[in-house]
Amino acid sequence: QVKLVESGGGSVQAGGSLRLSCTVSGYFSRMSCAGWFRQAPGKEREGLAFGRSDGSSIYADSIQGRFTVSRDYNTLYLQMNSLKPEDTAMYYCAARASYCSTLTTGTGFGYWGQGTQVTVSS
Length: 122
What we know:
By secondary structure, this protein is mainly β. 0% of the residues lie in helices and 50% in strands.
């Protein structure tokens, strides 16, 4: 069984940085793809950044150049720089065994964390 636990969220002023972590227990090495998503109140869930087990990654245009996804043995990270008020949302990590070729809103991801809140003030 795979369990994901996020940490690192919080409140920050615009222009600041945060680093989210997602600790994965159980067979993370078998997860071909792990990603970060966010959902703001009243909005659809958005796929932000996916890190593949081959070391490659894909990003949404909305965060390209500001956020960086990385993974090690049992943790998925999201380094967030130059944060904007519109980045305010609940952030979730998720994992899937199959390869992820494109960003999705969550299709195919069977393992999810509980979420961590990020609030950016202007």
